[in-house]
């Protein structure tokens, strides 16, 4: 069965962006080793334009073949014309307000997102990447099989939280920790079931 993996960037204090979700400031912490790691280990999570820029667009997907994101996460790239941001993945945008995506390759999920994720998990293929945001992560927390938390060395004080889930203890097991010269730490956890 496929896994749902929440792979997300966050500050030390658990915010994935400012109050509006903007997170461009995280890029200043990317060093050469982190970039090399991303290109080698996480190329599926790079937008298609970045894969082309780095000359890896022809690589087959290694880990993910599907991306799930909230409307606000998807809309970040629209002003730049990125209507099909992850052309190398099957793309789903979860939204109650968006009736149709501007690209035919992007499917809008307006109904029961938990049911949709369970359906996707039963299909053959690589894992499913939950890209963001906080509301969607809150709805899907109990469906997450893995957390890949990229912690950046900054403290924001407030902003968009990692998830908007209610209080409940959910146990995960530490799988790995990798740190980089620029201060980024990638911590991977698997769901304890």
From TrEMBL:
Residue ranges annotated for the Bacterial bifunctional deaminase-reductase C-terminal domain, each copy included: 5-185
Pfam families assigned: RibD_C
InterPro entries: DHFR-like_dom_sf (IPR024072), RibDG_C (IPR002734), Riboflavin_Biosynth_HTPR (IPR050765)
Protein name as annotated: Dihydrofolate reductase family protein
Lineage: Bacteria, Bacillati, Actinomycetota, Actinomycetes, Kitasatosporales
